[in-house]
């Protein structure tokens, strides 16, 4: 008793609904997510490698700066010894000059 076109419309509607359910199936979403990860992963891996290389370079630079600071501090700390050596050298020069003057006086 149904109209001839109504049966076809029911089949079409059911087919459309089935396609819509399948298109929005969670496994399709997971597939799309997997595809996104597969495409993005190489770039992310490259970024990670770059960051690790920069971290290593930064650690090397930090070590160099810390070593240089330590060397400067050691130089500053040793200035006391340099002043002491300077005083001893001045004293030795003075004694030499005094000895030379005495030697010339005896001639």
Automatic annotation (TrEMBL):
<keyword id="KW-0472">Membrane</keyword>
<dbReference type="GO" id="GO:0099078">
    <property type="term" value="C:BORC complex"/>
</dbReference>
<dbReference type="GO" id="GO:0005765">
    <property type="term" value="C:lysosomal membrane"/>
</dbReference>
<dbReference type="InterPro" id="IPR019320">
    <property type="entry name" value="BORCS8"/>
</dbReference>
<dbReference type="Pfam" id="PF10167">
    <property type="entry name" value="BORCS8"/>
</dbReference>
<comment type="similarity">
    <text>Belongs to the BORCS8 family.</text>
</comment>
<keyword id="KW-0458">Lysosome</keyword>
<protein>
    <submittedName>
        <fullName>BLOC-1 related complex subunit 8</fullName>
    </submittedName>
</protein>
